[in-house]
Every structure is written in structure tokens, then in C-alpha cells.
């Protein structure tokens, strides 16, 4: 992989008391790619993603966005820089419609006087939402029903669509298919590729190695709080990934 | 596993179905039908008494004050909160407003009858009532949103505190000298045949309905009730929104306090202990979910009328009015049960 990484982490250290979750971890994701972040339980994936999405702060280390050092003080800061996170536990409001959920916290107001009174422009939000869903190939029963009535896969699709709507650079996804059935998983994976094809980079945390090989362009492997491998998925096998996860060492710097 | 059934590709047109419109407009649609049926039964059995314009306007006046309280309660319950203090905040605000108006009218010596306080004094009294109500709401909101004490406990506490302060200020005696203009024009007056109190309640309901269903304030009220953590992550200032909602409920309790003075020509310190439960049942009957995130103002209007119509109808039919209490209890349980069944069905589907 050549060029400047979209987001790069160098030597990230994070301790919780005596436990060192990250011991100088490096990470990079390039524009327009799906990068899988894999590692065994406790390897530090979630901690790293929390730090890179502004939800947590590192004790040491450097984060660069498009080559320039940045301070991701909060999820809000990250969002302003075009970085969003799709949470495992779905941060959707189940009683609201998919359209209202896409605009949660960013409601469109009507133009003119009514807008200054706080009147929302439901029609425009619904139209834009429908457009956004169809652009990403998400099919919903109706854009008006409560999100809670949708299937798990559709809910996840709404969450990803929302992230893609507001992040123009990078989306972190933590196990987006963990609770889904086969067909729904397939749809969500297609959606992730659609997001990538819109020019938004995706960092995918997954334990499902065949899935990683199917959907990701590149893999970064964490082990014991450090990056131990960077592999292209093309030509890699599940065995190689598992080997890197379980016995990879920092010494083997990859040729990039 | 047959995923195709739970994940249909069918894309309906962008139109509301009739059922969707009815369902949304009526909140708990069946409760509207229940109200119609009740009115029809009473009207059929005692057409001259029940359906008389005098009786219907009495019904509406009886509902007006409770409706204003219940509208504030609707906003609070949609945020998945609860406000047990509405009735005693009403009492506190009416005492504060009545005492202010009495002092300003210059006849502070008399503690009975009416005063000839000007509209200016009445306006100041109204501001005092709404303001003190909002202040109690602010306290509720701060304790719920910032101190993170459960709303049930906070408002149970302020329920006692506001009533207690009202009794301390007045020595437990109602303030009986209130402005005559307020009683005549607002309390028993009417505009084009519609009682003033009813007009006020209707105006509050319309404005509240617009605010809840058409504005960002309303959308965020639903959002924080549906998923507070999700709303926070989406950048909504959840605590500020919660605070505003409790303040709104408090301010409406204050307004209801002024309406109560106008109607009864006195404060009614002992008369509002049951208002909190009455408003909660009205709100829940109207299809607002105690779990938050779901609710309508139209539903609350219907929910307020059910107990009022029941009591009125029972009195006219000669059924002991105690049966109203029994019936209301049963209807309330039924309403919550139906809400839970709907939720479970939804989560399975």
C-alpha cells in the first residue's frame, strides 16, 4: 500500500491501572479501503478503536489524520473530522423512524420563520433518507415505521447508513454482523462495500476470518497490544491470519 | 432459518396508509373508540341530561385543568420519566400567585370574598404562578438529569416539598380572596359560548401538539425517551433536553394553578393529592408508553376525558360514583397491558 495513510496511529500506549491494553501500537488505514482489524480477545482492538474514534485518550503516542497530527479529544471532535463509529449495541432510537434516526441530533429545520421556531422539515429529511438508503442499496419495508420493527440486519443497515451520511472519511465498525443471520450478514457486508465504493474508508473489527477475507482489502493484526502484521487479503488464507493473531511478533516488520 | 420472511424486500410507496394515520393520530386507537362508545351509551340512556349543552360544557370545564397538567406529564413520560409533583406544584403556584395578587390589590386584610385587582395585577400573578411552577420543574430537572436520581423519587420528594411549602406559607388555610375579574372572565366566563377555561386548555393542547410533533424540541423529546445513550452519542444534549421537559411540565402546572384559582375562586390546597395519578393514567390511556419514546397529545386529550365522562355518566345514571374509581383502575391496567403486548409483539416481529 502506498501513499499517505488516511489515519495513522504511532506508538499508542494505553494502561488501565497495572494492565497495559496497548503497548505502543501502530495502525494505519488508507483512503477508500476496507481495513480489517483483527486480533485475539484482549489484543487491544476495542481500546485502539475507542482511542481512534475519540471515545478514549491514549497515555502516549501520536495520531495523524492525512499526515497531520490531530487531537481526538471527543467523539464529537472525531465526527467533525469526518470519522464515525457504528457501535455494537446500536445507538439507534428504536421508537423513531429510520429517517428520523439518520437525522438524530442533526435535524433539518424548515426554511424561514418556521425554521427559526424549531420546526423540522420532515419531508426533506424523509426524501434525503430515502435517497441515501437507495444509494447504498438498503431496502426497508417503509421509511416511516419504527426502527424497532425492523429486522436486526435492517437495523444495522440503518446504523451504517447513518454513519456513512455524516462521516465523509472513515467509519469504524465493531463486529457489525455479530448478531445476524446468514442472509442478513451478506446484506450488511454488501452495504459495507457500498460505503467503501462511495469513497469512505472502513475499519472493520471482526472475529470471523472468512468474512474478513471476503470483504476486506487489507488486514492489520494486533497481538498483545501491538501491531504484529499488515497483510493484503488477496492471497492470504485463514491459517495465515490465525497464525499472525496467535503467534505474530513485532520483529517481523512487513514490507509495505 | 428462513430469513426471507423476516427481511422482506417489499418497498411500500411513500404514502401513509389509513391505518398508519389513524394509529399515529390516536395513539392507542382503541381508547378513542372506548370514549366514543361511553359517550354514545350515556347519551342514548339519558339524552336530555347527558347530551345537554350545559352538561357537555361542564364536562369540558372539568377536563380543562387536568388536561393542562396531563400535557406536561405527556412530555415527561415520553422522555421515559415521570412527574408525581404536578398536583402539588399546582397548589404551590396557585398559593404563590393568589398571595401575590392579594398583596398587590391592597386589600391584604380581607381573607375572604373577591378583590378588585386590576388585569395588571392578574398578569403579575399569572407570571408568578407559571414562574414558580417552572422553578419547581427546574429543580426536578436538575435532580433527574444532573444528579441522576430516579424521577420517581425526585418528584415524590418535590411532591411533598411543594405541598408542604404551600401549607407553611398559608398556615394551611386557603387564600380565599382572589381577583374578581379573574373569576368572572376566566373562571366562569366564556367566549362565543365556549368556556374560557376550555379555550385555554385547547390552546395549550394545540401548541403542545405542534411542539411535540413538528419541532426539533419534540423530536429530541422522543429521541431521549427512546434511547438516551444513543441520543447522547448522536450529539443531543440529553441532560439539557430533560431539564427543559421538566421545566415545561412545571410551568404548565403553574398555569393550571391559575386556572384553578379562576375556577374555584380560592386556592385548593387539599384538592390535588390525586392529580399526579390522574394525569399519569390519562397519559397512559392515551397511548403514551411508560417506557418512553412513544406518545401523542391527541391521545392524552382522549385519556383525560375517559374518567371525566365516566364519572359524569355514572352520576347521571345514578350509579354510585365510587364505581368510577374502580372502573378507572381496571381501564388503566388494561391500557398498560395492551401497551406491553404491543411492545412484545413488535420486538418479536
TrEMBL record, chain A:
It comes from the Bacteria. One of its GO terms (molecular function) is ATP hydrolysis activity. Pfam families: ABC_tran (PF00005). Gene3D superfamilies: P-loop containing nucleotide triphosphate hydrolases. Residues 7-249 form the ABC transporter domain. SMART domains: AAA. Keywords: ATP-binding, Nucleotide-binding. This is Monosaccharide ABC transporter ATP-binding protein, CUT2 family. It comes from Faunimonas pinastri.
From TrEMBL, chain B:
The keyword Iron-sulfur does not apply. It is found in: Cell membrane. CDD domains: TM_PBP1_transp_AraH_like (cd06579). Keywords: Cell membrane, Membrane, Transmembrane, Transmembrane helix. GO terms for molecular function: transmembrane transporter activity. The keyword Phosphoprotein does not apply. This is Monosaccharide ABC transporter membrane protein, CUT2 family. The lineage of its organism: Bacteria, Pseudomonadati, Pseudomonadota, Alphaproteobacteria, Hyphomicrobiales.
Amino acid at each position: 500500500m502506498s501513499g499517505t495513510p488516511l489515519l495513522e496511529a504511532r506508538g499508542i500506549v494505553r494502561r488501565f491501572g497495572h494492565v497495559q491494553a496497548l503497548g505502543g501500537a501502530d495502525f494505519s488505514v488508507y483512503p477508500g479501503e476496507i481495513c480489517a482489524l483483527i486480533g485475539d480477545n484482549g489484543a487491544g482492538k476495542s481500546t485502539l478503536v475507542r482511542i481512534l474514534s475519540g471515545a478514549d485518550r491514549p497515555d502516549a503516542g501520536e495520531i495523524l489524520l492525512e499526515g497531520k497530527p490531530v487531537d481526538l479529544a471527543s467523539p464529537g471532535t472525531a465526527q467533525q473530522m469526518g470519522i464515525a463509529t457504528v457501535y455494537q449495541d446500536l445507538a439507534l432510537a428504536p421508537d423513531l423512524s429510520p429517517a428520523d434516526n439518520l437525522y438524530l441530533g442533526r435535524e433539518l429545520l424548515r426554511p424561514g420563520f418556521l425554521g427559526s421556531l424549531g420546526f423540522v422539515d420532515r419531508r426533506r429529511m424523509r426524501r434525503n433518507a430515502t435517497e441515501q438508503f437507495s444509494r447504498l442499496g438498503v431496502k426497508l419495508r417503509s421509511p416511516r415505521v419504527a426502527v424497532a420493527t425492523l429486522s436486526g440486519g435492517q437495523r444495522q443497515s440503518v446504523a451504517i447508513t447513518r454513519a456513512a451520511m455524516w462521516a465523509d472519511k472513515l467509519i469504524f465498525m465493531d463486529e457489525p454482523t455479530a448478531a445476524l443471520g446468514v442472509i442478513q450478514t451478506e446484506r450488511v457486508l454488501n452495504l459495507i462495500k457500498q460505503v467503501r465504493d462511495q469513497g469512505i474508508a472502513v475499519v472493520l473489527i471482526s472475529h470471523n476470518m472468512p468474512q474478513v477475507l471476503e470483504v476486506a482489502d487489507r488486514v492489520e493484526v494486533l497481538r498483545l497490544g501491538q501491531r504484529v502484521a499488515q497483510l493484503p487479503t488477496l492471497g492470504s488464507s485463514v491459517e495465515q491470519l490465525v497464525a499472525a493473531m496467535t503467534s505474530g511478533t513485532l520483529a517481523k516488520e512487513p514490507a509495505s | 432459518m428462513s430469513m426471507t420472511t423476516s427481511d422482506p424486500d417489499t418497498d411500500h410507496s411513500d404514502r401513509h396508509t389509513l391505518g398508519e394515520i389513524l394509529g399515529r393520530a390516536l395513539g392507542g386507537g382503541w381508547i378513542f373508540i372506548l370514549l366514543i362508545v361511553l359517550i354514545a351509551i350515556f347519551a342514548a340512556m339519558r339524552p336530555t341530561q347527558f347530551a345537554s349543552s350545559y352538561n357537555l360544557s361542564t364536562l369540558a370545564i372539568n377536563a380543562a385543568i387536568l388536561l393542562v397538567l396531563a400535557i406536561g406529564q405527556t412530555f415527561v413520560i415520553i422522555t421515559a420519566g415521570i412527574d408525581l409533583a404536578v398536583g402539588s406544584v399546582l397548589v404551590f403556584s396557585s398559593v404563590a400567585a393568589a398571595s401575590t395578587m392579594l398583596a398587590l390589590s391592597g386589600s391584604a386584610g380581607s381573607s375572604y370574598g373577591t378583590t378588585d385587582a386590576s388585569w395588571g395585577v392578574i398578569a403579575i400573578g399569572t407570571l408568578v404562578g407559571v414562574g414558580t411552577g417552572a422553578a419547581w420543574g427546574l429543580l426536578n430537572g436538575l435532580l433527574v438529569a444532573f444528579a441522576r436520581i430516579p424521577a420517581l423519587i425526585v418528584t415524590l420528594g418535590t411532591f411533598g416539598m411543594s405541598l408542604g411549602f404551600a401549607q407553611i406559607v398559608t398556615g394551611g388555610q386557603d387564600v380565599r380572596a382572589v381577583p374578581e375579574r379573574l373569576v368572572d372572565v376566566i373562571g366562569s366566563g366564556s367566549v362565543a359560548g365556549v368556556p374560557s377555561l376550555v379555550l385555554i386548555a385547547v390552546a395549550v393542547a394545540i401548541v403542545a401538539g405542534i411542539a411535540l410533533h413538528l419541532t426539533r424540541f419534540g423530536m429530541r423529546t422522543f429521541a431521549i425517551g427512546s434511547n438516551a445513550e444513543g441520543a447522547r452519542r448522536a450529539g443531543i444534549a440529553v441532560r439539557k433536553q430533560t431539564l427543559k421537559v421538566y421545566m415545561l411540565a412545571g410551568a404548565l402546572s403553574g398555569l393550571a394553578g391559575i386556572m384553578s384559582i379562576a375556577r374555584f375562586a380560592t386556592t385548593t390546597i387539599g384538592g390535588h393529592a390525586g392529580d399526579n395519578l390522574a394525569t399519569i393514567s390519562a397519559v397512559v390511556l392515551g397511548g403514551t408508553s411508560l417506557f418512553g419514546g412513544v406518545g401523542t397529545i391527541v391521545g392524552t386529550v382522549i385519556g383525560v376525558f375517559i374518567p371525566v365522562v365516566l364519572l359524569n355518566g355514572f352520576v347521571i345514571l345514578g350509579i354510585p360514583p365510587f364505581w368510577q374509581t374502580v372502573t378507572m383502575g381496571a381501564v388503566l391496567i388494561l391500557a398498560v397491558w395492551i401497551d406491553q403486548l404491543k411492545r412484545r409483539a413488535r420486538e418479536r416481529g
